[in-house]
Every structure is written in structure tokens, then in C-alpha cells.
Amino acid sequence: xxxxxxxxxxxxxxxxxxxxxxxxxxxxxxxxxxxxxxxxxxxxxxxxxxxxxxxxxxxxxxxxxxxxxxxxxxxxxxxxxxxxxxxxxxxxxxxxxxxxxxxxxxxxxxxxxxxxxxxxxxxxxxxxxxxxxxxxxxxxxxxxxxxxxxxxxxxxxxxxxxxxxxxxxxxxxxxxxxxxxxxxxxxxx
Length: 189
Known about the structure:
By secondary structure, this protein is an alpha+beta fold. It has a single domain (about 30-189), classed as Alpha-Beta Plaits. About 30% of the residues lie in helices and about 40% in strands. It is built from 5 helices and 9 strands, in the order αβαβαββαβββαββ. The protein has helices spanning about 1-20, 35-40, 55-65, 95-105, 145-150, and strands at about 30, 40-50, 70-75, 80-85, 110-125, 125-130, 135-140, 160-170, 170-185.
């Protein structure tokens, strides 16, 4: 009889895991108190190998929570991506820090995409992205997509939302390779 109870408990746990893995709506959560007022519009989309279920994401979430710079954490199983929403006004995490969280949690780091709001500026022959709510300034690496954005959309000095690949940069949290930039229109709430 005792074995049947153990088998039923294990089976029930397996069913819960399967259903949780089928729907991203069951996972995403705030990890700080009063997160709605503290969430930034800025976020990271982190790809790591080994993230197979929501229990895996929980293990990784603990490392990000300790940083004190993340307001919300979500896992998109279909894409194999973890989304970390930053705290408003807090300096951003660097690529090396994020990589160490991934490795320490037992996963293999692959890439980071940053979705950030700020201004693209040109100073002394360099392109800089200044994040609006933190003032952090990140180097923008030149590429054909950036040249096209500068020419076609004239993004210099405008408030824009960018999607960029985040790369290591010595002496800075990261460098950005901008893939896309759109004028930023804040939403209510």
C-alpha cells in the first residue's frame, strides 16, 4: 500500500510538471515586492542550454534574485528563452555576471538579447547607447544594420527602443550590436 502512495505522488508530480511546461502563462512572476511600480521597460532575453522545465528556470531565478537588479523573471519554453525584466533605475547586469549566473545554476550560456529604451548618441567618433532610466552608457558596435538605422530612421538623439545582441566589453557591463530600433512611445500603466 505504501508503494502505491509513492507511485501516485510521483505520477501527480509528473502531471503537474507536464502541464506547467505546456503553458508559459503558468510561470512568469514578479520576484520583488511591489514589482509593478519597480519594473523597468528594459529586459534581457537569455538563451541557455539545459533549461528544460520550469523547475530549471526556478533554479536560475534564484541567482538573478540575489543580484537585486531584477524585478520579474519569465521562461518561454517554446523559444528556450528566459526573460529577465530589470528594476527601474538600477544599473544593468553585465554579460560576464549573467554568464556566471547561468553556469553557477548548472546551464550552458548561449546568448543575450537586450531590449532597452534610451538614446543613441555619437561622441568622438563612437556610437553610445544611453539607457533612459539608469543613465548607463554602453558602446554600440558598428554594423550594417546600425548604419541603415542611422541613415534611414535618423535615430541619433531620439528616444528609441532597441533590440540588440549583448556582447562582452572590457571595463563596461556590455557592448551592443543593434538589430532593430523603433521610436519609443511609453504606454500607460
